[in-house]
From TrEMBL:
Protein family per UniProt: Belongs to the class-I aminoacyl-tRNA synthetase family. Glutamate--tRNA ligase type 1 subfamily.
Domain Glutamyl/glutaminyl-tRNA synthetase class Ib catalytic residues, every copy: 9-310
This protein's name: Glutamate--tRNA ligase
Subcellular location: Cytoplasm
Reaction(s) catalysed by this chain's protein: tRNA(Glu) + L-glutamate + ATP = L-glutamyl-tRNA(Glu) + AMP + diphosphate
Cellular compartments per GO CC: cytosol
Uppermost EC category: ligase
Gene: gltX2
Enzyme Commission number: 6.1.1.17
Length: 469
């Protein structure tokens, strides 16, 4: 590794804007973010938009939204790879002038014919350009591409922090194209030039790029640039051990927001998916940033487990500050194009979050458990709730209403009042709690009736009891 120990850490996330932000790409972004934050470095964003036919502004915006929901804040301004085409081409020109690249006049038809013949003869289809060593004076006046003059002897060593030392024989490398015949740079060149120009010290990316590293290293060496530290992480597989795809469920980050998972829970789960810190499963962002390292990233693909994600999401919902939880709930409603909360609903939610958030794994579950807060009057009572409100129960609750008018509104006082009412009717408080719960929530399952009364307040509690009369 050529990086000096005192060099500030710079990582980057470099997605292609050709679709939604994939969950695997999100984990790559997370690993880069965590590593940079642990070392007090920079986490940069580069949009690799060189594929003009497939790159779209809508996909770019989806990437921004996905990163924002996950809370992965990048440093500085996002870089457009396409905007740097002139710089990429200039580097290719420098390599050409220094003899590390050459002009190749072989046509596509010639290359295709060579490969077809090689396949028929069962020999290597690796194209060896006949123009590699032809002098400039012997060049024809014809279109050409610029190719890297890759070494053909020896080997290239990739010192990878996850995969270990990976050795590629140089006779397995082709003279890859750097500039197309129209003068436009190819992706492989652009990546290296951008990483160098941005000062990237650590390239943390999927292991599907491992073979690319051997070819990209040749550009670093030709230009005399320091190599970054490589860390190629395994891909995410579905529960069946196959590459994560639509058949396994949601694959895009925004889909997970729309399903209502906690953003903190998603960060926690993705961090743990392929990386470990002992047996710790649940941890905070601060802990993840202080613990994260490259040494404890596994070499094998990690399997996505939706049950574990839901469990971690629920733990984070329970631990989240009430105001922050309300903010995330509002984001979920906006993402699913649901009606926003009124000011009154927001106020009630903040008052009652303590009694609902510990039992919800997702935002839809949080909304469901908060229904006593969010439903407008008169409540739409469930069938089982209607059964709990028989004539005898309603009669008893009518006695409770005037007593609540002047009650001290504390849990102790309310419990005592209901208990005394139950005793006066020679029944248990639990028997009275069922119809009271139905009247206050419209359901037979809900938070404690006393929690609901405290959250709803005197006027709303009495109003709901009067509604069932």
């Amino acid at each position: 590794m050529n990086i000096m120990s005192d060099t500030p850490v710079v990582t980057r996330f470099a997605p292609s804007p050709t679709g939604t932000l994939h969950i695997g790409s999100a984990r790559t972004a997370l690993f880069n973010w965590l590593f940079a934050r642990r070392h007090g470095g920079q986490f940069l964003l580069r949009v690799e938009d060189t594929d003009k036919e497939r790159s779209t502004e809508a996909s770019t915006q989806a990437i921004y939204r996905g990163l924002a929901w996950l809370g992965l804040d990048f440093d500085g301004t996002p870089v457009s790879q396409a905007a740097n085409a002139a710089r990429h081409a200039d580097v290719a020109a420098q390599m050409l002038a220094a003899g590390h690249a050459y002009k190749c006049f072989a046509t596509q038809e010639e290359i295709a014919a060579f490969r077809e013949a090689a396949q028929a003869e069962k020999r290597s289809t690796l194209f060896r350009s006949p123009w590699r060593d032809v002098e400039e004076g012997d060049h024809p006046d014809a279109p050409y591409v610029v190719r890297l003059k890759a070494p053909r002897e020896g080997q290239t060593l990739i010192k990878d922090q996850v995969q270990g030392d990976v050795v590629i024989r140089n006779d397995q490398l082709d003279d890859m194209v750097l500039l197309r015949s129209d003068g436009s740079p190819v992706y492989m060149l652009a990546v290296v030039v951008d990483d160098h120009h941005m000062g990237v010290t650590h390239v943390i990316r999927g292991d599907d790029h491992l073979n690319n590293a051997a070819r990209q290293i040749q550009i670093y060496l030709a230009m005399g640039w320091d190599l970054p530290t490589y860390a190629h992480i395994p891909l995410i597989h579905g529960p069946d051990g196959k590459k994560m795809s639509k058949r396994h469920g949601a694959t895009g980050v925004e889909e997970y927001q729309a399903l209502g998972y906690s953003a903190a829970g998603m960060r926690n789960y993705l961090a743990r998916l392929g990386w470990s810190h002992g047996d710790d499963e649940f941890f905070t962002d601060a802990q993840a940033q202080s613990w994260f390292d490259l040494e404890h990233i596994g070499k094998s693909p990690a399997r996505f487990d939706f049950k574990k994600l839901a469990n971690i999401s629920g733990q984070h919902i329970a631990q989240t500050d009430d105001a922050a939880l309300l903010h995330e709930l509002e984001g979920y409603l906006a993402a699913t194009q649901a009606d926003p909360l009124s000011d009154a609903q927001k106020s009630l939610f903040l008052s009652g979050a303590y009694c609902v958030k510990e039992r919800a794994k997702t935002m839809p579950e949080l909304i469901d458990k908060s229904s006593f807060i969010l439903q407008p009057r008169p409540l739409n009572l469930e069938e089982k709730a209607l059964l709990a409100l028989d004539s005898v129960s309603i009669s008893i609750l009518k006695e409770l209403t005037p007593q609540l008018q002047n009650a001290i509104w504390t849990r102790e006082e309310l419990e005592g009042l209901v208990e005394r009412l139950a005793l006066s009717h020679e029944t248990k408080m639990g028997k009275l709690a069922a119809p009271l719960r139905a009247a206050l929530s419209g359901r037979v399952t809900s938070p404690s009736v006393f929690d609901m009364m405290l959250v709803l307040g005197r006027d709303e509690t009495i109003a709901r009891l009067n509604d069932i009369s």
